[in-house]
Amino acid sequence: MVNGLVQGVGFRPFIYRIAIRHELTGWVQNTNENVKILVTGTSENINQFLISLKEEVPPAAMIEEMIAKEVEPAFFPEFSILGSHNLSDEITEISPDIAVCDDCLEDMGKPGFRLDYAFVNCTNCGPRFTIISDLPYDRSQTTMSSFEMCPDCRREYETVTDRRFHAQPTACNLCGPHYQLYVRDLLISDQIDTITTCISDKIDEGGIVLMKGLGGMHLACDAFNEASVARMRELKDREGKPFAVLFRDIETLEEYAELSEIEKQSLLSWRRPIVLLNKKKKTPSPELAQNLNAGLNLIGVMLPYLPIHHLLFRKLKTQAIVLTSGNFSSEPILIENQVALKDFSPLVDAIVLHNRDIFNRTDDSVVRVIGEKERVFRRSRGYAPAPVRTALNTEGIVAFGAELTNCFCSGKGHKAFLSQHIGDLQNIETALFYESTIARLLKLFRIRPSLLAVDMHPSYVSTRTGSESGDFPLVRVQHHHAHIASCMAENRLDEKVIGIALDGTGYGPDGNIWGSEFLICDLNEFTRELHFEYIPLPGGDLAVEEPWRMAISYLYKVFGREFTEIDIPAIKRMDSEKTGLIIQMIEKKINCPLTSGAGRLFDCVASLLDLVQVASFQAEGPMRLESLVIENCQESYEFTIETALNFDLMIRGIIEDLKQNLENTIIATKFHNTIIQAAWCAAEILRKKQGISKVVLSGGVFQNKYLLEGVINLLEKNKFEVFSHAAIPANDGGIALGQLAVASKRRELKCV
Ligand code: ZN
Ligand code: ZN
Ligand code: FE
After folding, report:
1. pLDDT: is 221 or 85 the higher one?
2. What's the 113 CA to ligand 2 centre distance in angstroms?
């Protein structure tokens, strides 16, 4: 019996091949629980078979558990693949979508029925999660069900030794889905050659094209053309947020971005995520458009993963295109053909659609390599819906997640199924996507809810959805406890730890906005031992978007009203009327909730350095600060820890440095070093008090490479055992897993 990601990834044909090779008879069968194998033969051959089974697994398969036992001898004339069997409510896993494989690319170049066929796939590659509507994974339960296989495809599908044996989405030019090209909602062509010629011309001429892909639509334009990128921003109503870039191939990409071996592996993996890389200082000409990534040195890049990407690059003159989700700002990625034609026809130069429906919407996933490990920031195409193995029993638990960057999570046995990235629930379209996806995934994974978990925030859409989801016991989990629990669940920890959550905002039970929490906690409960000192958030949410407000808040705290006299550019340029107003708000406590959010301190410093006064995308301040960091600067500022972590001395230090005209790069690095030192000092205090030396790191601030590497190194140097996120996002996309872990622990302790 084999458990894990073993369905829809060419596992049974693989078993067949190795069984034949080792002269065994018997059978292999998919059930909705696992894959069962029975072999007969000499013990020597069976041992060899077991070795091959472990060592030669297909690229996208993952064996989680394998149980082998002897059974009553029986006679089988041959080795065969039995039909799928529906055993119970248990399920095996659903494979994420897989980038087109090299063999299929080769088929696309050969004369025959798959010449230039843009939907070519096999058991090693192609669509999976995005087209599956139910289990077990059979063509009839996918959006390929409407396409009848032609005799050639059928023959391959039924030939055990063929690479397309039981490849559910298999198709060809004759029988499968195809693309159509529209210009201004007029159908122009359904011939792939005409289509790719037309859209590559449009892109090379500076146009914008909407293209239906695997998990949704993309907008594409030339990544070297400043004017096209500017037009794309206007179209998407997306002022500054960096765009992802699809490069022709790894060699070209390498000319533009610094690339480590691990980053290369991520880029080339079958998951094909967007990988965040440092742009090279010197790049060939032409240079990538400056307005692609808001002038940051970080750039999100990926490599072709669909057959049509490869077909396009055969014709494109440009080496790279912007490939960004086809949607309007903060709406979910578009999947419906009719909506695409209606909404985008007047806005873009061409629309390329296809007639294979997308059942489960996915975005491109985003990862970054930190500390020589791939860390997932946005978990969607290629990653979802693979489960996380949990130490505790999660059966029937549904966790609803946070508000922004939402993902939800549901439990089955010792597996937690985290949904694909959903997005910002404050957007109505996204909230609808959220609700429908919950219903779909619960059905797909056959989950019967018995316990619900939500954030403590009373007005989160997710909290309301959870509270209104039927008459089940409800667990409310504090946001930062959930962050730490998420990282604990990912690392299978179930004990008392020191938790450091550095984050933007989260609801605190004391009525304040938390966000830099040093906890002693286990999965059940936490005590809040330390945090950054509270600071007024003048204007509430507005202060999150406008870092200058945070600068005033900190300056006022440290220097009082006299700060306006300080002679540094950021302060000199402040509008005295507005400044006066903010000071009044703080003094009279009008619309000034208190926050301990670490992100706000980053915002304040970004404002003092005059990097960002009004953010044009989320976390712009922290990202710009990080992008200034230099190597080989060990200096830091002073800070104090009493009942809370106090950074007044650091603010004074930064002001002094600014007066001395010290370079921003040095100040930004000293600031980062200070936060790293502070995290370590706080951890030391908790270790002394509690005797615990396991530290768990979570929260969006830990997406900062310099900071995460710095904190891990310093803590490890001081003999702490450090745990951080890798497969699960450190940002609010990981919250649901934490909620689920807390709920499951409380159920085990009979606290719910
Ligand atoms: Zn393939
Ligand atoms: Zn066919
Ligand atoms: Fe958070």
Report:
1. 221
2. 7
